[in-house]
C-alpha cells in the first residue's frame, strides 16, 4: 500500500462517536485518527501507516467550522513530517511541508496563573442533558465580566462519574462539585462562586472512602 486516507474528527467530543466514525472510515476505505481526546492520535496513525510502507497520506479533518482545530491538524502533521520527510502528507488537499508552525511556543512554557479551573463535563450523559448550553452560558458570563483564561480556565472533560447529576461542573481548587448545571446555574456559579468567592450552598457531597 503506498497511499492512504485518514479521517480525523477534530472536536474534543469526537471520541463519543468513535464506533460510528470507525464504520464510516471502513466504508470509505479510510482509517481513523483523532486530533484530540481519542485514540489513535494522528501521529500514532501516521507512524502505523509509515510502518506499513505508505508513502502518501491524506488527512481529512471532520468537523463543522472548527478553523482553529483545522490549523492544529496542519501543525500536528507538520510536526510529524519533520521527522518523516519521506512520507508525503496532505491536509485538506494541500501538501504539508514541514515548515508549519511548531507545537511549542514560549507562550506555552509556564503553568498559567488562573485562580480557578472549571471542569465542564461533556461526557455522553451530560452532553445529552444540556452541557453544551451550560458550557456556552459559562463562557458568555465569564466574557461579559471580563474574565479570561488567566482568571478562570474552563476545561471540557469526558465523564466525571456522577452522571445522574448531569450536567456536572466542578470548580477547582475548591473541589466544589455542582450538579444540574443549566445555563442559569452556570451564570450563578460565575457570579457567586468565581466572582463573589461564595460557593453555591447546594454542592454535591464528595464521597470519600
Ligand atoms: S457524563 Fe457527565 S458525569 Fe458522566
CATH topology heading of the largest domain: Rossmann fold
Shape type: elongated
What share of the residues does DSSP label as strand, in percent?
A: 15-25%
Give the names of the bound compounds.
Answer: FE2/S2 (inorganic) cluster
CATH architecture of the largest domain: 3-Layer(aba) Sandwich
With helices defined by DSSP (H or I, 4 residues minimum), what is the helix count?
6
Overall SS class? alpha/beta
Low-confidence stretches: none
- Looking across the biggest beta sheet, what order are the strands in? 2-1-3-4-5
The separation of the N and C termini measures 54 Å
Query: Helical percent range?
Result: 25-40%
Main CATH class of the largest domain: Alpha Beta
Number of strands: 9
List the domain count as a whole number. 2
Series of H and E elements = EHEHEHEEEHHEEEH
Largest sheet: 5 strands, mixed
Mean pLDDT value = 93
Radius of gyration: 20 Å
Commentary on this structure:
- It is a single chain.
- The chain has 209 residues and is α/β, with parallel strands linked by helices.
- Helices cover 33% and strands 20% of the residues.
- It folds into two domains: 93 residues, Rossmann fold; 80 residues, Glutaredoxin (3-Layer(aba) Sandwich), CATH 3.40.30.
- The protein is built from six helices and nine strands; from the N terminus they run βαβαβαβββααβββα.
- It has a five-stranded mixed beta sheet with strand order 2-1-3-4-5, with helices on both faces. The protein has a four-stranded mixed beta sheet with strand order 7-6-8-9, covered by helices on one side.
- A hairpin with a 3-residue loop joins strand 8 and strand 9.
- Helix 5 packs across helix 6.
- The mean pLDDT is 93.
- FE2/S2 (inorganic) cluster binds next to helix 4.
